[in-house]
């Protein structure tokens, strides 16, 4: 699926200086969830201060119990350490996976870098099996790059 048509809207949301950063991040979640049918939970996790754990940021989708995720745990915690995109076509095939909802079949996590430091990530769950392609990775890298420019 070509996702490039969403890029101008992402840039517009991210650069709307009248809104708080959290509001802009939430609006990015809203846009992605509403525009891409296989994006069913869209949210951000950020490094929690100087702790080796992630804390849930703005998100859209079913509420999750996983507000804090230790580095190394689950797909998100692994990305906090690997600094690499993690595409999971089938969550049942993963041993180190934290289930948020039984409807979720696949997940993609893309890290956010500020000054080459991995400060957080965008996390997307899909209720469709194996939906993510290189186009999602490239598009989400664009989203994370834009967002990195407004983080403190
Ligand atoms: N599935 C993630 C946990 C976060 S939820 O998807 C919202 C993981 O394994 O890290």
What is this structure's SSE topology?
Blueprint: H1 7-14, H2 21-35, E1 41-47, E2 53-60, E3 68-70, H3 74-82, E4 86-88, E5 106-114, E6 117-126, H4 134-148
Antiparallel strand pairs: 1-2, 1-6, 2-3, 4-5, 5-6
Helix pairs in contact: 1-2, 1-4
Provide structural commentary.
The chain is α+β, with helices and mostly antiparallel strands. Helices cover 31% and strands 26% of the residues. The chain contains four helices and six strands, in the order ααβββαβββα. Strands 3-2-1-6-5-4 form a six-stranded antiparallel β-sheet. β2 and β3 form a beta hairpin. α1 runs antiparallel to α2 and α1 packs parallel to α4. The longest helix is centred in the first third of the chain and has 15 residues. The chain is globular and about 40 Å long. The N and C termini lie far apart (32 Å).
Low-confidence sequence ranges? none
Individual helix count: 4
Strand order of the biggest β-sheet:
3-2-1-6-5-4
State which percent range the strand residues make up: 25-35%
Taken from the alpha-carbon principal axes, the silhouette is globular
Please outline what is shown here.
This protein is an alpha+beta fold and 152 residues long. It contains 4 helices and 6 strands. Bound molecules: methionine sulfoxide (SME).
Supply the key terms.
6 strands; alpha+beta; 6-stranded antiparallel β-sheet; 152 residues; binds methionine sulfoxide; globular
């Amino acid at each position: 699926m070509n996702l490039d048509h969403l890029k101008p809207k992402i840039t517009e949301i991210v650069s709307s200086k009248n809104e708080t950063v959290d509001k802009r991040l939430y609006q990015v979640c809203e846009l992605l969830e509403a525009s891409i049918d296989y994006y069913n939970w869209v949210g951000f996790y950020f490094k929690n201060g100087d702790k080796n754990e992630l804390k849930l940021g703005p998100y859209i989708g079913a509420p999750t119990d996983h507000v804090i995720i230790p580095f190394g745990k689950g797909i998100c915690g692994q990305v906090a350490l690997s600094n690499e995109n993690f595409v999971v076509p089938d969550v049942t095939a993963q041993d180190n996976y934290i289930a948020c909802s039984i409807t979720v079949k696949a997940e993609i996590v893309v890290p956010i870098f500020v000054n080459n430091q991995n400060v957080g990530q965008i996390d997307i769950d899909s209720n469709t099996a194996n939906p993510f392609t290189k186009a999602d990775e490239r598009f989400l890298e664009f989203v994370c790059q834009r967002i990195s420019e407004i983080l403190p």
